[in-house]
């Protein structure tokens, strides 16, 4: 299970050193590699098995040309990323999509992680003041 926030940097070659908690969760519950793909404002990294299971479910239901086009876009924008020496390499194309330059935020999302540029993450979470967030969490039963 992936949880928490981790502030890390991208090296000049586009590699991200995964925090120990992320690596430990991956070893404990999942087999590498990660599948990294685009998301709404960031990148997501899924353990390969989890990603494949989701994709296969979608593929079984795809009937129309537009649905098949969506499946093509899903695979076209996904990359298998092995973990080497605790690091993953994010391609320039994916880094550009997410606006990732140097500083990033990795957010655990239970079965996947999100990889944000620090600036984009700050903008996305700017309206989540602790008082308001606490109230919303209580409404959800947390």
Automatic annotation (TrEMBL):
GO terms for biological process: negative regulation of DNA-templated transcription initiation. The lineage of its organism: unclassified sequences, metagenomes, ecological metagenomes. The keyword Kinase does not apply. Residues 5-50 form the SpoVT-AbrB domain. This is Transcriptional regulator MraZ. HAMAP family: MraZ. Gene3D superfamilies: Transcriptional regulator MraZ domain. SUPFAM superfamilies: AbrB/MazE/MraZ-like. InterPro entries: MraZ, MraZ_C, MraZ_dom, MraZ_N, MraZ_sf, SpoVT-AbrB_dom, SpoVT-AbrB_sf.
